[in-house]
User: What shape does this take?
Amino acid sequence: MAAASRDATDPRRWRTLVPEQPGTVLQDFAVLDGPALDRTLLAVVRTRHAVGELTLHDARTGIRTGTVPLPGRGTITSLTARQNPGHELWFAYTDHATPTVVLHYDAAAGRLSPWPGHSPATAPVEGVNVTQEVLRSRDGTEVRMFVMSPTGHPDRPRPAVLTGYGGFGASMTPGFTPQAVPWVRAGGVYAVACVRGGGEEGEEWHRAGRREHKHNTFDDFDAAADHLLRDGWAAPGRLGVLGSSNGGLLAAAALTRRPETYAAVVCAAPLLDMVRYELSGMGASWRDEYGSAADPAQFARLLSYSPYHQVREGARYPAVLLAVFDGDTRVDPAHARKMCAALQWAQAPVTRRSCCAPSTASDTARVPPRAAPASTRTSWPSSLTIWAFHCRGTADMNVLLCPLNDPGYLYPALAVGRELRRRAHTVHVLAGPRAAPAGDRGGPGGVRRHRRHSRVGDALDGPRPRAVHRGGAGGAAVAARRPGHLRALPRRARGRRGRLACRSWCSD
Assistant: This one.
């Protein structure tokens, strides 16, 4: 931060007030100049290795006068002071285990407290401990990763989920993650890698993971996965990957680079065909981040990591779930649909394993290479559509259902789980901490939530959804009686709007 007179347009006439600090990124500032203070103060928000901090400085000299203690290692946003002279600050705070809360700081009294005008502060979730790990990437660069776990240290290998983003200078700063909390409380590990391409360490960190340096992003992510396995956080064969949008590209690149490392991969609204990404959605506006296939040198780089083009016939890929928005105007759903077709083309006999259940009866069941696939589509809240794929012709199948207690997510998961269990498949469920209230009859097929169901897994044994089982040469399908039920799809879905134009499957 610099100070200058109003007519000092030349930067050489500016005076450094608050100097840059190595390892930090300036985020925001506010001025406190109320009559209750003996001097005007600057409240400065920085992130240090993605963790927020709030410091106070003398507005005339820039000398640091104090630090505002925060509830934990989290993120500060929406820093606000009075427009008139005042000595109060308001800001939003969140971390991995604490939902967003508005805090009030009184600089005159030196007191930080929850703001009573906001919703009541929620205590951090119990049973979730967060550590920040430091690891080295392939070229020796230090990369940081947040690890959420039940104990805060690698006491034993556990089922783990690794996620990241690594693009457009977006920072993976601490934030409350509802889907991660039940996973960790059930005994899993949830890790967030701050890879190059993001903004956790500043603009240079972003530039080190874009265009011709994009390979650094993938190397960092591979190093994060290796760290989890080597240090005993994750159990071999039970490490999953999750990513959306540019993070979906990251997850898919991990899938195609080292498919043997992961037990499951989830890509939501992913960017997968990097050779033709400019021709659909908002792809043309991302040339500065990825480069353009119109340039021969950039084309070669894009092709070298494009997940769609890196799928290899005969490779043993883990279970893959692709989620798309039918009306997505940013990332064309065709990316995921083409990738699904490519994975089907490359299918090979796969050793199936469970990445979610604490124990399984069998780890070595084989999937016939030409098992007739079938698809089930279920409706989720808002415009999100999830396509779940499974192989036919097998006696057993491991399925991970959504652990959330939100009825909008719970009902479709229960309906799919019951149908699979009815077909003699094995369904593993990561249960949430509690079930929904009793007596509510809603969701697919009028699924009832029972008072006795303390866990989602118990609810699978309740009444089955009212669905029609139809047989045929292509295998059975589930037909819906009204919107909200499981929807039927023929073996070869027509290439109409919002439909999958190929048969689809996954190995688990």
